[in-house]
Write a structure and sequence with these properties.
Main location: membrane
Number of domains: 2
Structural class: alpha+beta
Membrane topology: Lipid-anchor
InterPro entries: MdtP/NodT-like (IPR010131), OMP_efflux (IPR003423)
Protein name: RND efflux system, outer membrane lipoprotein, NodT family
CATH superfamily of the largest domain: Outer membrane efflux proteins (OEP)
Shape: elongated
Largest sheet: 4 strands, antiparallel
GO molecular function: efflux transmembrane transporter activity
Distance between the termini: 65 Å
Number of strands: 4
Strand order of the largest sheet: 1-2-3-4
Length: 477
């Protein structure tokens, strides 16, 4: 008997080795996780602004209230939360696959066989009740417990559960990445709204200034100091500025609706003081070191979990080449009449079956799944490296943007001051007939444009502040 066991064991071992030798050899690509030691034009610093909570990073109470509402009501974010629940349920499903399946059941049936058959002849010679034939039709009752279990020899089922769990973790990071983007979108739209309101206030001031000048021109025309041409040119300028006012009002409505959409509500006035827009202080940004992106950026962490799941998928696909072992067992009672159903040990029945199977024919399908898993693993590697590279470039671009915008804002501020003085000078010279009306018009137009550009530059500075916080991976924590 021992020799038979050894022979059977050797046979199974030979079968396993033979099948294992048929598994195609593929090389898995390893991800490059190396990053530069520091960012350009910056010193290495372990302190990172991404670690700051968004309530600490943004100081405007109106903006904080909007973000807080959006994190509860935003529909897209709630959709992602449901995707997380789906992924969590898939983990439970995978976990149940490698555990034994136990059930309870009952069965009842009847049949009648022909007398001139083997079973019919046996029933006619009944030994349970001598002299009595089997009843026709013959009933059969059965009740018991049943169990089945696929033995996870090659950890295929456990790897499938681990891959599902890893993808669940990836959905969590996807949710975090969406939170980061949502906060950044709301902050950007909010600063856009303040900039538009500030521009609208400037336009309204200019309308008053230009209207006053127009009245002066009309008086000068009556005294023959200027012609009708000058009056019409100033009227056209006032009308153009008024038209700009309505265009800005439309942009304000659209921006407010964009914020309301992100917040998850139909309507609502967005509070904010446009007069304080230019006084918003830009805090200094601490970049930390590039390697901290691997920890702070949710999209990088999501790509890393997806890569880990892809590596597990290769092991799952490889296990299809190996034999599988299944066990089935059952115990219960069986009888042809209810009176004998629970009579032991005569009505007791049980069974245990083991199944060992291995693929020998049509292995192309298994190879295809294996090749697909390997290709997807390479895709996951490239996606991970692309995500890391993109994150690094985003930080570098925003770093340069902050520096260049600071210099640009300083120069534009000087330009606005110079043109504001030029408007006053041109008005004085025009009243004393020492300047042509075209000089007044051009100076007012340039002053208005310069103020618009100054506000736009300020908004770009605030956008850069938001974008570098997002690029560093801030907001979700």
């Amino acid at each position: 008997m021992n020799i038979q066991y050894i022979i059977k064991g050797l046979g199974i071992g030979v079968l396993v080795i033979t099948i294992n030798a048929c598994v195609p050899e593929l090389t898995n690509r390893e991800a490059n996780r190396t990053l530069p030691g520091k960012y350009p034009i910056d010193v290495a610093d372990s302190v990172n602004s991404a670690k700051a909570n968004w309530r600490e990073y943004f100081h405007d109470p109106n903006l904080i209230a909007l973000i807080d509402t959006a994190l509860h009501n935003n529909q897209e974010l709630n959709i992602v939360l449901q995707e997380m629940e789906v992924a969590r349920s898939e983990v439970r499903e995978r976990k149940g696959e490698y555990l034994p399946s136990v059930g309870i059941g009952a069965e009842a049936g009847l049949d009648k066989v022909g007398r001139y058959t083997r079973n019919g002849a046996l029933e006619a010679n009944n030994e349970i009740r001598p002299g009595k034939e089997f009843p026709e039709p013959f009933t059969e009752l059965e009740a018991g417990l049943y169990a089945s279990w696929e033995v996870d020899i090659w950890r295929k089922l456990r790897n499938a559960k681990k891959a599902a769990f890893t993808r669940y973790l990836a959905t969590i990071e996807g949710r975090n990445f969406m939170v980061t983007n949502l906060i950044a979108e709301i902050a950007t739209a909010y600063y856009e709204l303040l900039a538009l309101k500030s521009q609208l206030a400037i336009v309204q001031q200019n309308i008053k200034i230009q209207s006053d000048v127009l009245e002066i021109v009309k008086l000068q025309k009556q005294s023959a100091r200027v012609t009708e041409l000058a009056v019409k040119r100033f009227e056209a300028q006032v009308l153009a500025t008024r038209s700009l006012q309505y265009a800005l009002q439309q942009e304000i409505v659209e921006t407010e609706n964009e914020i309301n959409y992100l917040v998850g509500r139909y309507s609502g006035t967005i509070p904010g003081d446009p007069n304080a827009f230019e006084d918003i202080i830009l805090d200094s940004i601490r970049l930390g070191i590039p390697s901290q992106l691997l920890e702070n950026r949710p999209d990088i962490r999501q790509a890393e979990f997806e890569l880990a799941a892809a590596n597990l998928d290769i092991n799952i696909a490889r296990a299809d080449f190996y034999p599988s072992l299944g066990l089935k067992a059952g115990i219960g009672f069986q009888s042809f009449t209810p009176a004998y159903l629970v009579k032991t040990p005569q009505s007791l029945m049980y069974g245990l079956v083991g199944e060992l199977s291995a693929p020998l024919v049509n292995r192309n399908a298994i190879k295809s799944r294996y090749y697909i898993a390997n290709a997807k693993q390479a895709q996951a590697v490239y996606h991970y490296e692309q995500t890391v590279l993109k994150a690094y470039m985003e930080v570098v671009n925003q770093l340069a943007s902050i520096s260049n915008l600071a210099n640009s804002y300083y120069l534009k501020l000087q330009q606005v001051d110079a043109l504001t003085e030029a408007v006053e000078i041109s008005n004085i010279l025009f009243k004393s007939a020492r300047a042509d009306y075209m000089e007044v018009l051009l100076t007012q137009r340039e002053a208005l444009e310069s103020k618009f550009e100054l506000i736009e530059t300020k908004k770009e500075q605030l956008d850069a502040k938001v974008n570098i916080y997002r690029a560093l991976g801030g907001g979700w924590n």
